[in-house]
Structures are given as structure tokens and as C-alpha cells.
């Protein structure tokens, strides 16, 4: 849904330029712009200049022209980073005018064109256009206005001599451009520090509204950052204040209303977002730029996309009925106008809405892909295929068909340079491999996404897109490292996620849920059930299904079997209704464990066999291996150790290759117990070798449990090793294991779950 939302109508980003033709005032002269003009004049007249210094200054010109007015001290500091001599010359020139007379400023504007008379750049370049605009604006000033400008220039220069009166530093304005950083020694951090916190819209000296160019640059920059790196954009409250300032001087500035809509969506403010979205389309129609009533342009197109935007807004907030009504209205208007592109977007949102409501949308999605391909809309066709792959994975479609479909779309993505869809495809492939239990392949795909060079030019120092695909990949990485006991790495990944996706952002819930699940599993492995209890409440707030499953796990660990059984029954009904196969299998396994404790091991067999059939049908190798281990344990408890050991050996290779540390340790512990049971039925000679093999297997299991610091499992291992070593007559090792067992038994609380009655 988030991809569709930014796809079809983003008026802020047409080739990276905002179309703002509403301002009546094009540009005007300010003291800051006089300082920029002096810099350009000195650069033009100063011929002997180091090549590196000139290159740095050239890269600085465009941001200085397009950006907001800066106090003189900050302006000089930025120039000094590029060329200290030039900063001193500009400072000296400005103070000579400020300490002199009005005619000195008049003389500067008189001689300014002479420096560029012989240069073609004066007519065609960005610098030339800027200087001509300033000269025209200055020549239109009356004498009183020129006098006020001179007085404001004096104040501008004198304030720089009083640092305590300057605006405090902020963090939102970056003046670096997106070129080779090796040739640019401007420290980006320093540039961030010297930028104005007071306002990106106001100058302390002019106290006026933004010019058209400054407003265009500000809106384009903030819109780009909101799309690609929200963390570097202005904070929601501050950005809204700045937009309100723009709209105060020009209420009909449509693009400012649209940026207000995007900003309100960051904080889930439905009132302001709806208000701004409606105002955007109202102002767009009233601006006079559109005169047709239908067709590709005109009022009709704005109205169609206005209703479609309103539908996406309601989808984001979960108002499915209102979203459905808005979609139907958009479809009706688009049909009247014969707008096939808009109809295709509506169809894409229609199947997305059905998925959000939990309905089967395969037929709608297939229709959408066919029509998008017919009208040559590769973006929408690819999104439809991605959706079909996701639904196919949940419904048990063959893995080779799914991956072939993804491979076909990847070829199209690279041909069309659709970088956003490449990221989505890699993230989806990571999730599919993870669902199938192939952790190595999932890790490879996640790393491929995170190390991929973007296909689109990255501006404003954005190095990594803050999209859902990156959040999903990083969450998978965190969970995969947590499964291997690498909690220090997990904390680093989580710290990066919190920086890239602050809590107020759209995709923050992904890492919040991931972090809580990792903490819960660690607390359960450590036997710290009192710490797991508040985590269950937090998980339930983000995902009710995951919260119920974790609550059942906690109740089972606390021996509250009746409460756990009720929760699992309710959860199974919910998962069967929503066709959540993965969670259904996990619920079956948890229910089978409850049967072990209550009604006996034989009653758990039907549930386990059903879970095994489902996991194999849907290619869920990890869950299939876990189910086989449950079956093996059940057979061991029913007195069939030979068959139990065969089952364990069948899945042991897969578990050791792709399983979590806890699963590896449990599988080896179960194999050792089967070997111990078989040792009792063999001859005396074979018995000793079987027991030694069991001790060796327990040593391997202990390695995995110790890496997880899973003390309860270590206690079980030491207990079994002490019993085996006692039978083998190795009393010194037996005493060591017995001592370790006793220390852990005294440290850990009493629990009804022992090595005898649990997997």
C-alpha cells in the first residue's frame, strides 16, 4: 500500500522540481543576496585561484542561491571551509560598504555587470540568471526602498560582530551537492552545524516571506527527504510551522498543501492530512492552470486523483468502508473520462484493499496484472505480480514457480531501472526464503539489498532509502542474528533501525515488533518469565495474533495449562479463518505440548501429523523439521526409541544447517536421549559405546545452549551427563557435571517442566 501511495500522483517531484507558479514575487534583493553577489563578483575577478578552491566554491554556488537567507557569520564560515582567503575578501568588502555610505552600495551594483560582460555565462548560466534577477530587482526599487535596503545591510553586518545575537545552530539545512565527495572537503557535519535553526523560511534581517525560488527549493528538498530519508527531513512539528508560514503569505500555494498532507501522514493525523489533501486539489483547480473538464488534463483529472488519494488516505487509517466508497467514486469518474491509467490505479488499490480486509483477492490481482501489461504500465504490473507471489507463498504454491515469477519481474525491473521495485523484490525474496526455513539464503538476499547501489540519483546526501523494503530486510537480519545468539549484533542493528525509522515514522512498527519478539524469546530461553509478561502486552498492542501466541507460550511455561489451552483454541480458529498457515502450525505444536502434560502422549499424534502435512504442503521446512522432532519425542515417550532416533537423524542435517541455536541444541539433546534409551536394550559391549556416543552428543548440545546462555537446558544436559558418566564409571567427570547441575538447580526457580517431560 505504501508503494501504491507514492506511485501515481506525486506533484512535488516532477524531475525533482516543484512547479510553483503562483507566487507574484519572483525574487528580491536582501543583504544575504548582496553577500552572495560579492562572492560571485570576487570569484569572477580573482583569476589566480587554486583549482581545488575554485571547484569547492563552484559546488557551493547553487545551494547558496537556492537556499534560505543565512546570517553573515554562518555564510562566511561556509565559504571559509572552501577558501579562507575568499571569505576574508568578501567580509572586508561588505564591512567597507556597511561602514561607508549609500553610494558605495550603488557603486557595487553599477560595476557588477562589468565582471561578466565578456562571459557567455552571464546570459545562460544559473549564476548569470541570478545576477540579472538581482539587478532587475534592485533597479525597480525606489529611493526609500534602496535606503531601507542599505540600513538592513548595515544591521546584517553589525549583527555578525555580536555572536550571541545570532540564531542558534540547527540541523536541517544541508548545502552540499551530490557529486564526488573525494573532491569536496567540506565537512557535511560542519555544514549542518552552521545552518540556521531559526527558520529555513525567514531571514533575521528581511523578516519577509520566501521568494519563489527559495520556496521551490525548500519544498522539493523536504518532499524528496520525506520519500527517501525521512529521518533527515525536518521534524513534523517544525515542518508544519514552516508550511503554515508559507501558506500565510500565499494560501493558494497548492504544493505547500500537498507537502502538509505528506507531513501529517507521518504522525497519523487524519484531520490535518484530510484537510490539506482536499485543499491541495481545490487550489490546483482554482489556480487556473487547468481548463478542461475531462481527458488527460483539466478539472476531471484532478478530481479523479483527488478521490483516489482520499481512498488511499482511508486505507492507511483502516477506514475500509470509506475507502471502498471513495474508490467506487474514483472508478465512476475515470470511466466517464475513459481514463485507463486512473482505472488501473483504482484496480490496484481495490485488490490491495481486499487484502487489507482479509479477503481473497487473487482474481482481482490477476486481472490487474493483465490490464497493466496491456496498457504498458510495468510498475503496476510488477506490483501485481509481487502481490500474487506473496499470496501464492501463503497458499502453498510451489517454491520454484514463485521464484521464477520473481526472477522474471527482476529482469523487467533492471531493464526499466525501477529501483524501488528491485528493493521490494529483494525484500520479498528474503521473506520467502525465511518462511521456507532457508536462513542462509534469506541472509544472502538481505545483505544483497543492503549493499545494492541505488539506480536513481541520490540527492541531499541520502545514502539509503527509508522504505519498507529496507526495514523488512534489517528486521530479518536482526532475527537471524538473534537465532544464532549474537545479541550484540542485534543491538547494533536495532540502534540503526531506530535512527533510520524514528518511532513516529510509518514503518517503525516493524522494528518495534521485531525487537519485542527477540526480547521475549531471550527471556523465555533464560527462564525469566517475569520479564516476558510485560513484553506480551506490548506485542499484543502491535499484533494481536502474535501477542496471543506469546501469551499462550508464557501460560504454558508457568504451568497454567487451562488458560493456555483456551487461548490456543481461540487463536487456532482465528488463524484458520484468516488462512495464516504458519501460525496455525505453531498453534498445533503448542497444543500438542499441552497434550503431553495433560491427556498423554498418544493424544498428541493426530495434531502432530496434521501439522506435518500442512508444513510439507506449504514447503515450510523449518516448521516441518520442528514437527518431526515433536513426533520423535512423542515416540520416545511411547517407548519406540528406534523409530524416534530415525526421525531425528532424518531432520538433523536440515536443523544444523538452517535452524536456530535453540533448535540445534534441542535436536541433539533429543538424539542423545534416544541413544540412551537404545543403549539399555543392547548387549553390554554395545551399551558402553552407545553411552559414550550419547555423552559426545550431549557435549555438542551443551555448546549451542551455552552460546545462548540457556541455563535451564544446560541443567538438563548436566543431569543426563552425570547419569551417563556414573554408569560408565568416570567418577571425576561425573562429579564435575553433578556440581554444575547442582549450582544451576539452586540458581534457577523450580519448574514443572523437566528433561523427562519436555522436548
Automatic annotation (TrEMBL):
<dbReference type="GO" id="GO:0031145">
    <property type="term" value="P:anaphase-promoting complex-dependent catabolic process"/>
</dbReference>
<keyword id="KW-0833">Ubl conjugation pathway</keyword>
<keyword id="KW-0132">Cell division</keyword>
<dbReference type="GO" id="GO:0051301">
    <property type="term" value="P:cell division"/>
</dbReference>
<feature type="domain" description="Anaphase-promoting complex subunit 5">
    <location>
        <begin position="257"/>
        <end position="356"/>
    </location>
</feature>
<feature type="region of interest" description="Disordered">
    <location>
        <begin position="161"/>
        <end position="180"/>
    </location>
</feature>
<keyword id="KW-0539">Nucleus</keyword>
<protein>
    <recommendedName>
        <fullName>Anaphase-promoting complex subunit 5</fullName>
    </recommendedName>
</protein>
<dbReference type="InterPro" id="IPR037679">
    <property type="entry name" value="Apc5"/>
</dbReference>
<keyword id="KW-0131">Cell cycle</keyword>
<keyword id="KW-0802">TPR repeat</keyword>
<dbReference type="GO" id="GO:0005680">
    <property type="term" value="C:anaphase-promoting complex"/>
</dbReference>
<dbReference type="Pfam" id="PF12862">
    <property type="entry name" value="ANAPC5"/>
</dbReference>
<keyword id="KW-0498">Mitosis</keyword>
<dbReference type="InterPro" id="IPR048968">
    <property type="entry name" value="Apc5_N"/>
</dbReference>
<dbReference type="Pfam" id="PF21371">
    <property type="entry name" value="Apc5_N"/>
</dbReference>
<dbReference type="InterPro" id="IPR026000">
    <property type="entry name" value="Apc5_dom"/>
</dbReference>
<feature type="domain" description="Anaphase-promoting complex subunit 5 N-terminal">
    <location>
        <begin position="29"/>
        <end position="158"/>
    </location>
</feature>
<dbReference type="GO" id="GO:0005819">
    <property type="term" value="C:spindle"/>
</dbReference>
<comment type="pathway">
    <text>Protein modification; protein ubiquitination.</text>
</comment>
<dbReference type="InterPro" id="IPR011990">
    <property type="entry name" value="TPR-like_helical_dom_sf"/>
</dbReference>
<dbReference type="GO" id="GO:0070979">
    <property type="term" value="P:protein K11-linked ubiquitination"/>
</dbReference>
<keyword id="KW-0206">Cytoskeleton</keyword>
<comment type="function">
    <text>Component of the anaphase promoting complex/cyclosome (APC/C), a cell cycle-regulated E3 ubiquitin ligase that controls progression through mitosis and the G1 phase of the cell cycle. The APC/C complex acts by mediating ubiquitination and subsequent degradation of target proteins: it mainly mediates the formation of 'Lys-11'-linked polyubiquitin chains and, to a lower extent, the formation of 'Lys-48'- and 'Lys-63'-linked polyubiquitin chains. The APC/C complex catalyzes assembly of branched 'Lys-11'-/'Lys-48'-linked branched ubiquitin chains on target proteins.</text>
</comment>
<keyword id="KW-0963">Cytoplasm</keyword>
<keyword id="KW-0677">Repeat</keyword>
<comment type="similarity">
    <text>Belongs to the APC5 family.</text>
</comment>
<keyword id="KW-0597">Phosphoprotein</keyword>
<dbReference type="GO" id="GO:0045842">
    <property type="term" value="P:positive regulation of mitotic metaphase/anaphase transition"/>
</dbReference>
Amino acid at each position: 500500500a505504501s508503494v501504491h501511495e507514492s506511485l501515481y500522483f506525486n506533484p512535488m517531484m516532477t524531475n525533482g522540481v516543484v512547479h510553483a507558479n503562483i507566487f507574484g514575487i519572483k525574487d528580491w534583493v536582501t543583504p544575504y543576496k548582496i553577500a552572495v553577489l560579492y562572492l560571485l563578483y570576487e570569484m569572477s575577478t580573482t583569476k589566480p585561484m587554486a583549482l581545488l578552491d575554485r571547484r569547492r566554491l563552484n559546488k557551493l554556488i547553487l545551494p547558496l542561491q537556492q537556499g534560505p537567507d543565512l546570517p553573515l557569520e554562518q555564510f562566511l564560515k561556509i565559504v571559509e571551509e572552501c577558501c579562507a582567503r575568499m571569505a576574508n575578501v568578501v567580509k572586508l568588502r561588505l564591512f567597507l560598504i556597511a561602514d561607508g555610505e549609500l553610494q558605495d552600495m550603488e557603486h557595487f551594483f553599477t560595476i557588477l555587470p562589468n565582471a561578466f560582460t565578456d562571459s557567455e555565462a552571464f546570459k545562460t548560466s544559473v549564476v548569470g540568471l541570478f545576477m540579472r534577477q538581482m539587478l532587475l530587482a534592485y533597479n525597480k526599487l525606489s529611493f526609500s526602498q534602496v535606503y531601507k535596503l542599505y540600513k538592513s545591510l548595515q544591521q546584517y553586518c553589525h549583527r555578525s560582530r555580536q555572536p550571541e545575537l545570532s540564531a542558534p545552530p540547527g540541523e536541517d539545512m544541508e548545502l552540499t551537492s551530490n557529486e564526488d565527495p573525494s573532491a569536496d572537503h567540506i565537512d557535511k557535519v560542519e555544514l549542518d552545524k552552521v545552518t540556521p535553526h531559526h527558520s529555513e523560511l525567514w531571514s533575521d534581517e528581511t523578516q519577509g516571506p520566501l521568494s519563489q525560488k527559495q520556496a521551490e527549493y525548500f519544498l522539493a528538498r523536504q518532499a524528496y527527504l520525506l520519500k527517501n530519508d525521512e529521518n533527515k527531513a525536518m521534524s513534523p512539528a517544525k515542518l508544519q510551522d514552516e508550511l503554515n508560514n508559507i501558506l500565510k503569505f500565499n494560501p493558494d500555494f497548492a504544493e505547500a498543501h500537498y507537502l502538509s498532507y505528506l507531513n501529517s501522514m507521518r504522525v497519523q493525523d487524519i484531520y490535518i492530512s484530510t484537510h490539506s489533501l482536499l485543499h491541495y486539489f481545490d487550489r490546483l483547480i482554482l489556480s487556473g492552470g487547468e481548463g478542461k473538464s475531462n481527458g488527460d488534463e483539466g478539472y476531471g483529472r484532478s478530481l479523479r486523483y483527488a478521490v483516489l488519494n482520499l481512498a488511499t488516505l482511508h486505507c492507511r487509517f483502516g477506514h475500509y468502508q470509506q475507502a471502498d466508497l471513495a474508490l467506487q467514486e474514483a472508478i465512476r469518474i475515470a470511466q466517464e473520462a475513459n481514463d485507463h491509467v486512473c482505472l488501473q490505479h483504482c484496480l490496484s488499490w481495490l485488490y490491495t484493499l481486499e487484502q487489507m480486509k482479509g479477503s481473497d483477492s487473487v482474481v482481482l490481482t490477476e486481472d490487474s496484472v493483465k490490464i497493466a501489461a496491456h496498457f504498458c504500465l510495468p510498475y503496476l504490473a510488477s506490483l501485481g505480480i509481487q502481490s500474487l507471489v506473496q499470496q501464492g507463498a501463503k497458499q502453498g504454491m510451489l517454491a520454484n514457480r514463485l521464484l521464477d515469477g520473481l526472477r522474471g519481474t527482476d529482469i523487467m525491473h533492471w531493464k526499466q531501472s525501477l529501483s524501488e521495485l528491485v528493493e521490494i523484490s529483494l525484500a520479498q525474496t528474503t521473506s520467502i526464503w525465511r518462511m521456507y526455513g532457508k536462513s542462509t539464503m534469506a541472509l544472502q538476499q538481505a545483505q544483497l539489498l543492503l549493499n545494492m547501489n541505488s539506480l536513481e540519483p541520490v540527492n541531499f546526501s541520502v545514502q539509503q532509502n527509508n522504505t519498507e523494503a529496507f526495514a523488512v530486510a534489517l528486521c530479518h537480519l536482526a532475527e537471524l542474528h538473534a537465532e544464532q545468539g549474537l545479541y550484540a549484533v542485534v543491538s547494533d542493528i536495532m540502534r540503526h533501525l531506530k535512527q533510520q525509522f524514528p518511532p513516529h515514522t510509518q514503518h517503525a512498527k516493524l522494528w518495534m515488533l521485531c525487537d519485542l519478539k527477540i526480547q521475549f524469546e531471550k527471556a523465555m530461553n533464560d527462564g525469566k518469565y517475569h520479564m516476558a509478561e510485560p513484553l506480551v502486552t506490548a506485542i499484543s498492542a502491535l499484533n494481536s495474533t502474535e501477542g496471543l501466541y506469546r501469551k499462550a507460550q508464557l501460560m504454558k511455561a508457568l504451568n497454567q495449562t487451562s488458560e493456555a489451552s483456551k487461548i490456543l483454541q481461540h487463536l487456532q480458529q482465528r488463524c484458520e479463518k484468516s488462512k495464516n498457515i504458519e501460525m496455525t502450525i505453531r498453534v498445533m505444536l503448542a497444543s500438542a505440548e499441552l497434550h503431553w502434560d495433560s491427556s498423554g502422549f498418544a493424544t498428541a499424534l493426530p495434531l502432530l501429523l496434521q501439522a506435518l502435512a500442512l508444513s510439507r504442503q506449504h514447503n515450510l521446512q523449518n516448521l516441518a523439521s520442528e514437527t518431526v522432532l515433536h513426533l520423535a519425542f512423542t515416540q520416545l515417550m511411547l517407548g519406540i526409541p528406534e523409530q524416534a532416533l530415525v526421525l531425528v537423524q532424518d531432520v538433523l542435517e536440515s536443523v544444523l544447517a538452517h535452524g536456530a541455536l535453540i533448535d540445534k541444541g534441542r535436536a541433539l539433546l533429543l538424539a542423545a536421549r534416544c541413544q540412551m534409551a537404545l543403549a539399555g536394550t543392547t548387549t553390554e559391549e554395545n551399551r558402553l559405546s552407545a553411552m559414550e556416543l550419547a555423552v559426545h552428543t550431549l557435549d555438542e548440545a551443551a555448546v549451542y545452549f551455552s552460546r545462548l546462555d540457556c541455563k535451564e537446558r544446560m541443567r538438563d544436559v548436566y543431569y543426563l551427563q552425570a547419569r551417563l558418566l556414573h554408569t560408565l564409571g568416570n567418577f571425576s567427570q561425573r562429579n564435575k557435571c553433578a556440581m554444575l547441575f547442582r549450582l544451576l538447580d539452586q540458581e534457577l526457580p523450580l519448574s514443572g517442566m523437566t528433561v523427562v517431560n519436555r522436548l
